[in-house]
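Researcher: I'm comparing several assemblies side by side, and this is the next one on my list. It has 1510 residues spread over two chains. Same procedure as the others: predict the full complex and return the structure.
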Amino acid sequence: MAQVFQVIGTRPIRHDGLDKVTGRAQYGADIQLSGMLHGRVLRSSHAHARIKSIDASAALKVPGVEAVATAADLPESGDRIAHLGEGAVNLRHLSSNCLARGKVHYKGQAVAALAATNPHIAEEALALIKVDYEPLPPVMDVREAMKDSAPKLHADVFTEEMGQLKKDKPSNVAKHFQFKLGDVHKGFAQAAVTVEREFHTATVHQGYIEPHNATAMFNPDGNVTIWCSTQGAFTVRAQVSELLQIPVSRIKVVPLEIGGGFGGKIRVYLEPVAAVLSKKTGKPVKILMDRAAVFEGTGPTPGSYIRVKLGADKTGKLVAGEAYLAYEAGAFPGSPIGPGAMCIFACYDIPNVLIDGFDVCVNKPATAAYRAPGATNAAFASETVVDEICRQLKIDPLEFRLKNGAKEGTRRADGPIYPRIGMIETVEAAKKHPHYVAPLAPGSSPFPRGRGVASGFWFNIGLKSSVTASVNNDGTVSLVEGSTDIGGTRVSVAMQLAEALGIRAEDVRPVVADTDSVGYTDVTGGSRVTYATGWAAYEAAQDIKWQMLEKAAQLWKTDLDNVVYDKGVIRAKDDPAKKITFKELAEKIQHKGGIVVGRATVDPPWPGGAFATHIVDVEVDPDTGKVSILRYTAVQDCGKAIHPSYVEGQIQGGAVQGIGWALNEEYAYNAKGEMTNASFLDYRMPTSLDLPMIDAVIVEVPDPKHPYGVRGVGEVPIVPPPAAIANAIYAAVGVRMNELPMSPGRVVKALAAKK
Amino acid sequence: MAQVFQVIGTRPIRHDGLDKVTGRAQYGADIQLSGMLHGRVLRSSHAHARIKSIDASAALKVPGVEAVATAADLPESGDRIAHLGEGAVNLRHLSSNCLARGKVHYKGQAVAALAATNPHIAEEALALIKVDYEPLPPVMDVREAMKDSAPKLHADVFTEEMGQLKKDKPSNVAKHFQFKLGDVHKGFAQAAVTVEREFHTATVHQGYIEPHNATAMFNPDGNVTIWCSTQGAFTVRAQVSELLQIPVSRIKVVPLEIGGGFGGKIRVYLEPVAAVLSKKTGKPVKILMDRAAVFEGTGPTPGSYIRVKLGADKTGKLVAGEAYLAYEAGAFPGSPIGPGAMCIFACYDIPNVLIDGFDVCVNKPATAAYRAPGATNAAFASETVVDEICRQLKIDPLEFRLKNGAKEGTRRADGPIYPRIGMIETVEAAKKHPHYVAPLAPGSSPFPRGRGVASGFWFNIGLKSSVTASVNNDGTVSLVEGSTDIGGTRVSVAMQLAEALGIRAEDVRPVVADTDSVGYTDVTGGSRVTYATGWAAYEAAQDIKWQMLEKAAQLWKTDLDNVVYDKGVIRAKDDPAKKITFKELAEKIQHKGGIVVGRATVDPPWPGGAFATHIVDVEVDPDTGKVSILRYTAVQDCGKAIHPSYVEGQIQGGAVQGIGWALNEEYAYNAKGEMTNASFLDYRMPTSLDLPMIDAVIVEVPDPKHPYGVRGVGEVPIVPPPAAIANAIYAAVGVRMNELPMSPGRVVKALAAKK
């Protein structure tokens, strides 16, 4: 019983489109305030060191330098865990990540900051801050860090072993947990085929085009305003509140346009530092990062070590799965090991599962969320093992997924039983897709070519959103929301309001408001905005609708239950002559007390989760090891595509990021733990010249809870690419790549090893 | 049965106070945008002339000049009357007042504008725009303009005579109307004493400290953003929409802080011009006025001619009143003659009344609202005639007012019957006040001294307001309102929300939002914000309260009707142990789906009106004619004083403006119709050195409709001063001043005439 839509599923121009293509949109770096100072951050030159002293006296003598800030200027945060943004945050760690207290745990960690009358003075003076370090040996690899003999990053981080804190000795392993389902021993005993493999993935960065920035103005009355580029203004507010011990109501965060985030712009870096410098100087302070600071000083996604063992019976039915995942948290505990472990087998119905997860500190930047955090690493491992099983059993890999794919009622290893989901539907769509039934795409040369497929899962989230919406007298509606628009959510939220009211998307005017001007709204992340903020817009439309009905009833001097709202037209039930459009009524009521404002707040149940199945054709240059993408098809269940163009854009963008992760991207470190490629010249992300058109195929299995069936779109498309490409490389040249990125050097090495 | 308040009546520091005293508040002139151009306006050098041609070619050749705008760039607006802001506006006139079309009707009228890369280039190039004028004789006085022989300003303005348009011949008299009550002939026949006098008042300006400004950014997609200093962002939106023929939803008006308005910042001047220049150049354009432009190019309050005749019987009971009021509209019809006529006898219960009102065009700037528009001129006339009657009958002027004062049930000449009002209570308070029973205040010299009293009325208005309010998890509330805060309304509105919720005023964080971010809200004017926006805040609090009750009921797993809200504490009726404060509940619910956002829109009935009675002691220097204010007491019924300090501030500010109007302020014109004192050096406003402390006495007769009894405060205190001072001058030196201002020259002349 599919809903019929007037607005949803169409492709109106996004409201912020022209501002963005003409350069008029205001980003954090565009902020200019009278008397504004420019801040810069001094970053650690060591991967691991004790800070013996910081001497800023020479810097403070430079004319134009007005203040220096160090950890001594931040309140001492205890080890309290606060739930800020997407997950739990240890405040002491968060504080030390903004300005290091006592020790530095990675090269690039913020150690001090200063504010000066112009950026050049700030940069020059920065070099005059003398930090006396006692260098310590760094540990840069997750498995090294897990050894008892490894240098310990923290004297006060202990292993939480299956929920119990082992306080006997400090450890780099912050956490070990298990997910269990059935009995894996019994399961593997039933297996006709068992494959077990080890995998390594490198640290990669989200690579958003806009560096971090923050401008703060601290008033003597204790109120502070912060302008920044963030995925969540309320999260910045909450974090700054905790770090500086200021009530949230004294902080106003103004979110400017954001030049990409992908999870990396949830945690604060510069905001509290700018606020402290502003408090010290009495002037507004603006701090910008350069690209090197972004790479070295903000959170990438973890490198990882993963072991996967899967068993299937002779019919091809999966009977058991075992996984061991160790994720690099970076400097402070908090890798996305949880989601990684939740996602690793989430595409399949496996009766017996055992998953071990480890969160491990290493001397790299504290990791942050990155598009389906943790899931891509995991899927690279599990989906290449699935491919091997299919090869061994000589089963078509999509047939295998149809046979084993998760569906409504399947229990996932971490507990939940799936509601209605679309895994099977994505596989069916992939199987029917012209790409899958066509011969391999032609290459540019006679190099070997191959096709691979892989699936992926991301659970998507709900969380809190608020909107208000005011009816204008020209029949348009101003919509106020608190969700940063990263990928077109102004329009996708506006369209849901428009659909509910029966008006055009263009007749909704969405604005993203500051934290003083809209109700609490969680971060733009977890693929939640179109789902949850869209839901709030739907509810606000209901609030508007009944008020408009009330106005119509007054106008016609009839009872409220005699008027009905139907696709933008209000009618009296008892008189066909009495009908009026939303726009007409909005115009009519303006001089008769007619202001209509709707509001809604939601904290909805989480959607059922998103599934994707990707198909890729590659060619491999056997001499250089270069892998080229010849054809790429990404099939994804998005529940309901509110604005198909932006859904396609999300799918394409996610796939491209996954391809970059698969083939080229990695943090290169030298022996001292220094990143050696902290620039876009050396950290190789794919460009449009490297890629074919990504064919985005939308499957729609509506989420039954959401009023319009939305599931969320943004994250799962990054999950399958590394595995799909690895499987395609195997198909082309017969080598199993078990390390990311599958860069030319590694491919050449693997080819040589095969020979 | 007086309400007991926790917040209302206290004096918290205003939320915007620190920003304003430290210079951090952002006013229109503070706006800086990348690539911004600077606009300047060329103003007419003639008081009355036909524009034969405008040649901007030389100006456009100046390097840095990017565009010129004239009336040719504005759509031709028909004679449509639009209800924008406080009253009806003829769009063709409004357009021509922004950029003159065909003719100029006053010196200083905007004729052309240009935008250049910096203000200096703009000013230089402006002088190169050649306007070829055909000068016409100006008419500068209302009675001259009413003559058949007078030069006519408009070929298409005809007299609306008692509601009928007399289309036979053009006239400077745009309107003549009458208010009638009883039978004046019969009334005057009963009079024992009849006094009839003529009065003249000069054109005066509001004299706000901040000149007009506007910055506009016109996007190629047809959306325009305007930053300005205005009393009503939605009114600017509506006016620009009409003048440029753009839907309101394509216009976003961002109201910045306002450095005074007093009615003069409701009509647009620069906003559409900046928008047109921005559209032509593709860049943001900012235009500022200088002080001369403010005096010559924006709306002062009208000069007027008034004749008043009052009759009382021998007991001192008023039996009849007649008034003839002719107000200078300035260049275009639209003086506040209506309110003037409504207010002239509004303080009294007079059974027989006839009032004639005339709206008359003269070659002065188009008049605008100014604090109780029209009422001060009228009260100067009626309240000095009342004083003469009291003298003749030898009745104490306050006793006379007690006897004749309007009260609940009194019918005003324009129709309405008063609900509960506070005229009598202000007179009683004045009579009991130490000032009234004390001897005359000591002067600085042996000059003659005297005491005068006068009363005043302003009806105050209601109109539309919207607010939204979000509960923060620290128990504070963010309040979004659309009312420009001129005199402390952020706090007076916040206090009403706080009172309703039982929280502290400091725990409400009010913001004045742009037109995209809050529901429709009418102008800050008519003394309506604390009344109507405060009422909206009260209603939003009710919306929040029931949601909080719902959350508490969920928390306690009880029924909604088992929980009650009492002064910031929620309790379960059936269990004394179950109680929780608003703040505690806000904190508690944050992780349990607990977002609470309230909203309200109101269009309330108008309040009953505001009355004031002032007492003044003066001394008069018989040689120079200088009048000094020795002591001043202003008694006013404000219904309920939400924040007494700002009520007192409004009363003091209004009284001071009235004193300036009484003694010094006037537009001085030469024979060519050129203003000769367009600067603060030559246009003499009183400073703190000229005045004693104004003793503001608050009387509280709650308005029975308003939830907290508010009536509105800002306007009526300007009404009594000229009459009170004129009466005091008579008491001192025995001359009746019948012309404003009662400047030294006029006083000397009157004294000479007496001799």
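Model: For your comparison table: Chain A is about 25% helix and 25% strand.
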